[in-house]
UniProtKB/TrEMBL annotation:
Domain HTH lysR-type as annotated: residue spans: 6-63
Coiled coil: none
InterPro entries attached to this UniProt entry: LTTR, LysR_HTH_N, LysR_subst-bd, WH-like_DNA-bd_sf, WH_DNA-bd_sf
GO molecular function: DNA binding; DNA-binding transcription factor activity
Pfam families: HTH_1, LysR_substrate
SUPFAM superfamilies recorded: Periplasmic binding protein-like II, Winged helix' DNA-binding domain
Similarity remark: Belongs to the LysR transcriptional regulatory family.
Species per Swiss-Prot/TrEMBL record: Phyllobacterium pellucidum
Keywords from the UniProt entry: DNA-binding, Transcription, Transcription regulation
Keyword Transcription assigned: yes
Keyword Membrane listed: no
The name this protein goes by in its record: LysR family transcriptional regulator
Length: 297
Protein backbone atom coordinates (compact mmCIF):
# COMPACT_ATOMS: atom_id res chain seq x y z
CA UNK A 1 0.00 0.00 0.00
CA UNK A 2 1.41 3.39 -0.98
CA UNK A 3 2.04 5.97 1.73
CA UNK A 4 -0.62 8.68 1.97
CA UNK A 5 -0.04 11.98 3.77
CA UNK A 6 -3.27 13.47 5.06
CA UNK A 7 -3.74 17.21 4.56
CA UNK A 8 -4.07 18.92 7.96
CA UNK A 9 -6.09 21.80 6.52
CA UNK A 10 -8.57 19.30 5.11
CA UNK A 11 -8.72 17.56 8.49
CA UNK A 12 -9.30 20.89 10.23
CA UNK A 13 -12.27 21.59 7.95
CA UNK A 14 -13.58 18.06 8.52
CA UNK A 15 -13.40 18.35 12.33
CA UNK A 16 -14.91 21.86 12.33
CA UNK A 17 -17.84 20.71 10.20
CA UNK A 18 -18.61 17.75 12.45
CA UNK A 19 -18.31 19.78 15.67
CA UNK A 20 -20.44 22.66 14.36
CA UNK A 21 -23.00 20.27 12.89
CA UNK A 22 -22.80 21.96 9.50
CA UNK A 23 -20.12 22.28 6.84
CA UNK A 24 -21.69 25.56 5.77
CA UNK A 25 -20.95 26.89 9.28
CA UNK A 26 -17.45 25.43 9.04
CA UNK A 27 -16.89 27.27 5.76
CA UNK A 28 -17.97 30.54 7.38
CA UNK A 29 -15.82 29.98 10.47
CA UNK A 30 -12.72 29.05 8.45
CA UNK A 31 -13.20 31.79 5.88
CA UNK A 32 -13.72 29.46 2.92
CA UNK A 33 -16.43 29.08 0.31
CA UNK A 34 -18.83 26.14 0.54
CA UNK A 35 -17.51 24.84 -2.79
CA UNK A 36 -13.96 24.88 -1.42
CA UNK A 37 -15.10 22.92 1.65
CA UNK A 38 -16.92 20.38 -0.57
CA UNK A 39 -13.74 19.96 -2.58
CA UNK A 40 -11.76 19.35 0.61
CA UNK A 41 -14.21 16.70 1.78
CA UNK A 42 -14.02 14.91 -1.58
CA UNK A 43 -10.23 15.00 -1.29
CA UNK A 44 -10.43 13.46 2.19
CA UNK A 45 -12.57 10.56 0.93
CA UNK A 46 -10.16 10.04 -1.97
CA UNK A 47 -7.21 9.91 0.42
CA UNK A 48 -9.07 7.58 2.76
CA UNK A 49 -10.05 5.31 -0.13
CA UNK A 50 -13.51 4.78 1.34
CA UNK A 51 -16.72 6.65 2.14
CA UNK A 52 -16.43 9.01 5.11
CA UNK A 53 -20.03 10.24 4.90
CA UNK A 54 -23.41 8.76 4.17
CA UNK A 55 -26.53 10.70 3.19
CA UNK A 56 -28.98 11.07 6.08
CA UNK A 57 -32.12 13.08 5.38
CA UNK A 58 -31.01 16.49 4.14
CA UNK A 59 -27.61 16.20 5.75
CA UNK A 60 -24.62 13.91 6.12
CA UNK A 61 -23.74 11.37 8.78
CA UNK A 62 -20.40 9.72 9.47
CA UNK A 63 -19.77 6.15 8.41
CA UNK A 64 -17.77 3.80 10.65
CA UNK A 65 -14.68 4.84 8.70
CA UNK A 66 -15.69 8.48 9.23
CA UNK A 67 -15.88 8.00 13.00
CA UNK A 68 -12.40 6.47 12.97
CA UNK A 69 -11.09 9.29 10.79
CA UNK A 70 -12.59 11.89 13.15
CA UNK A 71 -10.77 10.46 16.17
CA UNK A 72 -7.42 10.42 14.38
CA UNK A 73 -8.03 13.87 12.84
CA UNK A 74 -8.48 15.38 16.29
CA UNK A 75 -5.29 13.76 17.53
CA UNK A 76 -3.29 14.91 14.51
CA UNK A 77 -4.55 18.47 14.85
CA UNK A 78 -3.83 18.50 18.57
CA UNK A 79 -0.27 17.35 17.94
CA UNK A 80 0.17 19.95 15.22
CA UNK A 81 -1.12 22.75 17.45
CA UNK A 82 0.96 21.55 20.40
CA UNK A 83 4.06 21.61 18.21
CA UNK A 84 3.40 25.21 17.19
CA UNK A 85 2.81 26.21 20.80
CA UNK A 86 5.99 24.45 21.92
CA UNK A 87 8.00 26.36 19.33
CA UNK A 88 6.40 29.78 19.72
CA UNK A 89 4.54 29.60 23.03
CA UNK A 90 7.10 31.50 25.10
CA UNK A 91 6.94 34.41 22.64
CA UNK A 92 3.40 35.36 23.65
CA UNK A 93 3.16 38.35 25.96
CA UNK A 94 0.41 40.60 27.25
CA UNK A 95 -2.57 40.54 29.55
CA UNK A 96 -5.83 38.57 29.25
CA UNK A 97 -8.93 39.29 31.32
CA UNK A 98 -11.11 36.19 31.71
CA UNK A 99 -14.57 35.86 33.25
CA UNK A 100 -16.47 32.67 33.99
CA UNK A 101 -19.33 31.14 35.96
CA UNK A 102 -18.91 29.81 39.50
CA UNK A 103 -19.69 26.32 38.16
CA UNK A 104 -16.29 26.30 36.46
CA UNK A 105 -14.27 28.20 39.06
CA UNK A 106 -13.06 25.15 40.97
CA UNK A 107 -13.10 22.55 38.20
CA UNK A 108 -12.07 24.17 34.91
CA UNK A 109 -10.20 27.30 36.00
CA UNK A 110 -7.21 25.68 37.80
CA UNK A 111 -6.62 23.33 34.86
CA UNK A 112 -6.85 26.13 32.30
CA UNK A 113 -4.64 28.54 34.22
CA UNK A 114 -2.01 25.86 34.87
CA UNK A 115 -1.86 24.71 31.26
CA UNK A 116 -1.75 28.27 29.92
CA UNK A 117 0.86 29.51 32.39
CA UNK A 118 3.23 26.63 31.62
CA UNK A 119 3.05 27.33 27.88
CA UNK A 120 2.97 31.14 28.08
CA UNK A 121 4.79 32.30 31.21
CA UNK A 122 5.02 35.91 29.99
CA UNK A 123 1.25 36.40 29.77
CA UNK A 124 -0.61 37.79 32.78
CA UNK A 125 -4.16 36.55 33.40
CA UNK A 126 -6.83 38.30 35.44
CA UNK A 127 -9.73 35.94 36.23
CA UNK A 128 -13.14 37.01 37.50
CA UNK A 129 -15.81 34.59 38.72
CA UNK A 130 -19.28 36.14 38.45
CA UNK A 131 -22.92 35.63 37.47
CA UNK A 132 -24.11 35.59 33.86
CA UNK A 133 -25.45 39.14 33.64
CA UNK A 134 -22.25 40.66 35.00
CA UNK A 135 -20.06 38.60 32.67
CA UNK A 136 -22.01 39.65 29.58
CA UNK A 137 -22.00 43.29 30.66
CA UNK A 138 -18.26 43.28 31.24
CA UNK A 139 -17.35 41.60 27.96
CA UNK A 140 -19.59 43.90 25.90
CA UNK A 141 -18.17 46.98 27.66
CA UNK A 142 -14.60 45.80 27.06
CA UNK A 143 -13.78 45.15 30.72
CA UNK A 144 -13.23 41.45 29.94
CA UNK A 145 -11.50 39.93 26.92
CA UNK A 146 -13.22 36.55 27.29
CA UNK A 147 -16.30 35.37 29.18
CA UNK A 148 -17.63 31.84 29.61
CA UNK A 149 -21.37 32.12 30.28
CA UNK A 150 -24.62 30.19 30.06
CA UNK A 151 -26.87 31.21 27.19
CA UNK A 152 -30.19 32.92 27.89
CA UNK A 153 -30.91 33.25 24.17
CA UNK A 154 -29.10 36.57 23.81
CA UNK A 155 -25.82 36.75 21.90
CA UNK A 156 -22.94 39.19 21.79
CA UNK A 157 -21.27 40.25 18.52
CA UNK A 158 -18.36 37.83 18.93
CA UNK A 159 -19.52 34.67 20.67
CA UNK A 160 -19.34 30.95 19.94
CA UNK A 161 -21.38 28.06 21.32
CA UNK A 162 -18.81 25.60 22.64
CA UNK A 163 -20.96 23.04 24.44
CA UNK A 164 -24.50 21.87 25.13
CA UNK A 165 -24.76 20.82 28.79
CA UNK A 166 -27.68 18.90 30.30
CA UNK A 167 -29.38 20.31 33.39
CA UNK A 168 -30.19 17.95 36.24
CA UNK A 169 -31.98 17.89 39.57
CA UNK A 170 -29.53 17.75 42.47
CA UNK A 171 -30.07 16.56 46.05
CA UNK A 172 -28.00 15.48 49.07
CA UNK A 173 -25.49 12.71 48.46
CA UNK A 174 -27.01 10.37 51.03
CA UNK A 175 -30.72 11.17 50.87
CA UNK A 176 -33.63 10.27 48.63
CA UNK A 177 -36.24 12.63 47.21
CA UNK A 178 -38.81 11.18 49.63
CA UNK A 179 -36.77 12.44 52.59
CA UNK A 180 -36.93 16.00 51.27
CA UNK A 181 -40.66 16.29 50.75
CA UNK A 182 -43.44 15.93 53.29
CA UNK A 183 -46.62 14.32 51.94
CA UNK A 184 -48.93 16.84 50.30
CA UNK A 185 -46.41 19.66 50.90
CA UNK A 186 -44.79 21.65 48.10
CA UNK A 187 -41.36 20.51 46.96
CA UNK A 188 -38.65 22.59 48.68
CA UNK A 189 -36.23 24.32 46.29
CA UNK A 190 -32.77 25.69 46.97
CA UNK A 191 -31.82 28.31 44.38
CA UNK A 192 -29.46 31.13 43.58
CA UNK A 193 -30.85 34.62 43.86
CA UNK A 194 -32.83 35.81 40.82
CA UNK A 195 -32.21 36.31 37.99
CA UNK A 196 -30.93 32.78 37.41
CA UNK A 197 -31.44 30.69 34.27
CA UNK A 198 -31.38 27.38 36.12
CA UNK A 199 -33.78 28.60 38.81
CA UNK A 200 -36.22 29.63 36.07
CA UNK A 201 -35.79 26.25 34.34
CA UNK A 202 -36.60 24.45 37.62
CA UNK A 203 -39.78 26.38 38.38
CA UNK A 204 -40.99 26.23 34.77
CA UNK A 205 -40.50 22.44 34.67
CA UNK A 206 -42.36 21.94 37.96
CA UNK A 207 -45.20 24.25 36.91
CA UNK A 208 -45.57 22.43 33.60
CA UNK A 209 -45.66 19.07 35.41
CA UNK A 210 -48.22 20.34 37.94
CA UNK A 211 -45.88 19.84 40.90
CA UNK A 212 -46.25 22.34 43.75
CA UNK A 213 -43.02 23.93 44.99
CA UNK A 214 -41.74 26.50 47.47
CA UNK A 215 -38.49 28.43 47.78
CA UNK A 216 -36.87 26.95 50.86
CA UNK A 217 -33.46 28.60 50.47
CA UNK A 218 -31.84 31.27 48.30
CA UNK A 219 -28.17 32.16 48.11
CA UNK A 220 -26.03 34.73 46.28
CA UNK A 221 -23.26 32.16 45.83
CA UNK A 222 -22.85 28.61 44.61
CA UNK A 223 -21.04 27.64 47.82
CA UNK A 224 -24.13 28.55 49.84
CA UNK A 225 -26.34 26.64 47.41
CA UNK A 226 -24.23 23.48 47.76
CA UNK A 227 -24.28 23.74 51.56
CA UNK A 228 -28.08 24.06 51.67
CA UNK A 229 -28.61 21.22 49.19
CA UNK A 230 -26.19 18.93 51.05
CA UNK A 231 -28.02 19.71 54.30
CA UNK A 232 -31.31 18.61 52.75
CA UNK A 233 -33.02 22.00 52.82
CA UNK A 234 -34.18 21.48 49.26
CA UNK A 235 -33.38 20.19 45.79
CA UNK A 236 -31.78 22.40 43.19
CA UNK A 237 -31.07 22.43 39.46
CA UNK A 238 -27.53 22.69 38.10
CA UNK A 239 -25.48 20.82 35.49
CA UNK A 240 -23.40 17.68 36.15
CA UNK A 241 -20.18 19.69 35.73
CA UNK A 242 -18.33 20.33 38.97
CA UNK A 243 -20.80 18.80 41.43
CA UNK A 244 -19.19 18.45 44.90
CA UNK A 245 -19.17 15.07 46.64
CA UNK A 246 -21.78 16.28 49.14
CA UNK A 247 -24.55 16.25 46.51
CA UNK A 248 -25.76 13.93 43.75
CA UNK A 249 -27.80 14.12 40.54
CA UNK A 250 -31.37 12.84 40.90
CA UNK A 251 -32.70 10.78 37.99
CA UNK A 252 -36.15 12.06 36.91
CA UNK A 253 -37.47 8.52 36.37
CA UNK A 254 -36.63 7.51 39.95
CA UNK A 255 -37.39 10.78 41.72
CA UNK A 256 -40.66 11.63 39.99
CA UNK A 257 -39.26 15.03 39.06
CA UNK A 258 -39.82 16.35 35.52
CA UNK A 259 -37.17 16.18 32.79
CA UNK A 260 -35.06 19.25 32.12
CA UNK A 261 -33.67 20.75 28.90
CA UNK A 262 -30.02 21.29 28.11
CA UNK A 263 -28.23 24.60 28.42
CA UNK A 264 -25.93 26.15 25.83
CA UNK A 265 -22.54 27.40 26.97
CA UNK A 266 -21.09 30.34 25.05
CA UNK A 267 -17.60 31.77 24.93
CA UNK A 268 -17.82 35.52 24.36
CA UNK A 269 -15.01 37.71 23.03
CA UNK A 270 -14.90 41.48 23.35
CA UNK A 271 -13.26 41.97 19.94
CA UNK A 272 -13.57 40.44 16.48
CA UNK A 273 -9.79 40.21 16.10
CA UNK A 274 -8.42 39.33 19.52
CA UNK A 275 -4.79 39.35 20.57
CA UNK A 276 -2.87 36.05 20.09
CA UNK A 277 -2.72 35.45 23.85
CA UNK A 278 -6.51 35.83 24.11
CA UNK A 279 -7.10 33.45 21.22
CA UNK A 280 -4.78 30.86 22.77
CA UNK A 281 -6.53 31.07 26.14
CA UNK A 282 -9.89 30.76 24.36
CA UNK A 283 -8.70 27.58 22.63
CA UNK A 284 -7.50 26.04 25.91
CA UNK A 285 -10.74 27.02 27.65
CA UNK A 286 -12.85 25.49 24.88
CA UNK A 287 -10.91 22.22 24.97
CA UNK A 288 -11.13 21.99 28.77
CA UNK A 289 -14.88 22.65 28.83
CA UNK A 290 -15.64 20.12 26.11
CA UNK A 291 -13.55 17.50 27.90
CA UNK A 292 -15.34 18.17 31.20
CA UNK A 293 -18.76 17.93 29.58
CA UNK A 294 -17.78 14.70 27.81
CA UNK A 295 -16.65 12.88 30.96
CA UNK A 296 -19.38 14.02 33.36
CA UNK A 297 -22.42 11.73 33.82
Amino acid sequence: MRQITLDLEVLRTFVAGVELGSFAKAAEKLGRSTSAVSSQLRKLEQQAGTDIFVKQGRGLALTDAGETMLAYARRLLDLNDEAIVAIHGSELEGWVRLGLQEDFGETILPQVLGQFARAHPKVRIEARVARNAELIDRVTSGKLDLALAWSDGAVTPYCERIAEVPMCWVGPANASIEQLAVADDPLPLACLEAPCLLRTAATNALDHAGIAWRLAFTSPSLAGLWAATAAGLGVTVRTPVGLPASVQPLAPAESGLPGLPSLSLLLHRSQAHAEPATLRLAAIMTEAVRSAVAVDP
